[in-house]
Specification:
The protein is an alpha+beta fold. The chain folds into 2 domains: about 5-55 and about 390-465, no CATH class; about 60-390, Rossmann fold (3-Layer(aba) Sandwich). Helix content is about 15%, strand content about 25%. It contains 7 helices and 24 strands. The protein has helices at about 70-90, 160-170, 180-190, 250-255, 285-295, 350-355, 375-390; strands spanning about 5-10, 25, 50, 60-65, 100-105, 140, 150, 155, 160, 210-215, 255, 270, 275, 305-310, 315-320, 330-335, 340, 345, 365, 395-410, 415-420, 435-440, 445-450, 455-465. A 7-stranded mixed β-sheet has the order 8-7-5-4-10-14-19, with helices on both faces. Strands 1, 2, 3, 20, 21 and 24 form a 6-stranded mixed β-sheet that branches. The protein has a 3-stranded antiparallel β-sheet with strand order 12-15-16, with no helix packed on it. The radius of gyration is 26 Å and the shape is elongated. The model is unreliable at about 1-55 (pLDDT under 50).
Length: about 475
């Protein structure tokens, strides 16, 4: 018979305990797996899992929405499905987290060029968007003077339903700059780029809160330094130093494919395979943008990112008729990397995908080429459920085989005592007990529930259990 031991480290005695990490079960004599890790005091075959008595339910969420010329169709899809995200958060243990929710656009100007249509100097400068532009504004809106959505401890700074007030302020339209600075706009909004955030964004970030950032864009990031000359309007023809003034500049000077910049004059459709960000090119380094956001938290593991964008492959460069008829050369462009049944599409999000990957397991990439964003928003809400949801087990155990022992410190004398912890009896009132509870949100469909009362400090609880199906 294979035995499995779990060491559960707890804090002060309280009532029902939830968990911000998965409880992993490791075979006797082996190391821990999954979200937990071996720690001080863990014996052979044991893992240490933190079960905090007070769950941190503060979550700051920022949606970066592409408001360039093709933005409205994706904004509509987002708002049609956003109730899925809200409902998933409301279904968490304890209900809706203490939420800060803000919206920022992709418009951050076009470097030193100020004469490009819809690209004024600095653009929206990372300021949170609050204009009531959506179709739901008649039934839901932010209170006067508010610059982001707050719903914390049952107090809200808006009228109407949460999904509706988000839809009211997130319908940014399609009047933004066509050279989207998605990632730089996020950094600017949060003050991650080294300068203070815009004044109207004050008090959004809470030091202890989890931070979730969501990108919605059908094109790749084109974040350039504020003094960049990449968007120089004097370069108009294929033969000019920067080529035509179009989005392909972001590809040519922002990507490397096989170690080379994408060609400006391919001989017909050319699949360049897997491309990466040109970290020594004219755009901001993706690595720096990742590091800046992680530095917002003393614990970088509290930062979660997600993107609804187009896959980075296939990456096919082609040419088409020039928009300036006096140019004798065909103009380059990158073909869409995906298209949905409803005709919407997206271009290879090379830098955006690399940015998401920079956060490891805390990054999530979903396709924008979908008839509905409901599955994507369910997955994005799952990032939050992972940290404030139920204490999931990574393996299914047989509760009848488990023995639990509490190691308790007396609050007065400091003496340590070890007392067996019984399984909770159905319908009975017990001062302290444990049980395994079913929950479909867990990979194993199970999580551990602890009930505690009294004034003692539970230093740890050691369990010995058998996995279901073990010989």
């Amino acid at each position: 018979m294979t035995m499995t031991r779990v060491m559960v480290v707890t804090a002060l005695s309280a009532t029902l305990v939830a968990c911000s990490t998965h409880a992993s079960l490791s075979p006797d004599g082996g190391g821990g797996t999954g979200g937990a890790s071996g720690g001080a005091g863990a014996g052979p075959g044991q893992v240490v899992v933190d079960y905090p008595q007070t769950i941190n339910r503060n979550v700051d969420v920022l949606f970066m929405i592409d408001n360039s010329s093709s933005g409205t169709v994706y904004e509509a899809k987002l708002n049609e499905s956003f109730s899925t995200y809200v409902n998933a958060l409301q279904a968490l243990p304890g209900g809706l987290p203490n939420l800060h929710l803000a919206v920022v656009s992709s418009s951050l100007g076009a470097g030193r060029s100020t004469d490009i249509d819809r690209c004024p100097a600095g653009g929206d400068q990372g300021a949170f968007q609050t204009k009531p532009l959506g179709t739901t504004c008649a039934s839901a809106s932010l209170n006067p003077g508010q610059t982001f959505i707050v719903n914390a401890s049952g107090t809200a700074n808006y009228t109407g339903a949460l999904a509706d007030v988000f839809s009211c302020i997130s319908a940014l339209g399609d009047g933004g700059c066509g050279f989207e600075h998605q990632l730089a706009s996020i950094a600017r909004a949060l003050g991650a780029d080294g300068a203070p955030p815009p004044a109207q964004n004050a008090n959004f970030l809470r030091p202890d809160a989890y931070l979730q950032i969501v990108v919605l864009s059908d094109e790749d990031d084109c974040s350039a330094p504020p003094d960049s000359d990449l968007f120089d309007t004097s370069s108009q023809l294929v033969s000019d130093p920067l080529g035509p003034l179009q989005s392909y500049r972001c590809n040519e000077f922002g990507h490397l494919c096989g170690g080379k910049m994408p060609p400006r004059s391919p001989a017909g459709p050319t699949d360049l395979g897997t491309c990466v960000s040109n970290e020594n090119g004219r755009l901001l380094r993706v690595g720096d943008l990742v590091a800046q956001l992680k530095h917002l938290k003393t614990d970088p593991a509290k930062v979660y990112v997600a993107a609804i964008s187009a896959p980075p492959t296939p990456y096919v460069v082609n040419v088409g008729p020039p928009e300036i008829k006096t140019d004798p050369s065909m103009w380059p462009y990158v073909q869409h990397s995906c298209m949905s049944a409803d005709g919407t599409y997206g271009d290879p999000a090379v830098r955006t995908k690399q940015w998401v990957d920079g956060f490891g397991a805390n990054g999530l990439f979903e396709t924008i080429c979908a008839d509905t964003f409901t599955p994507a928003l369910q997955a994005i809400a799952g990032q939050i459920a992972h940290v404030i949801g139920p204490p999931c087990l990574d393996a299914t155990i047989d509760p009848a085989t488990c023995t639990f022992v509490d190691h308790t410190i007396d609050a007065t004398s400091g003496a340590v005592s070890s007392v067996p912890l019984p399984r909770c009896a159905s319908g009975a009132t017990q001062p302290a007990c444990w049980d395994v509870v079913s929950d479909a949100r867990c990979p194993s469909n199970e999580y551990l529930k602890f009930m505690r009362t009294g004034t003692g400090i539970v230093e740890s609880s050691t369990a010995t259990c058998t996995k279901k199906g073990s010989p």
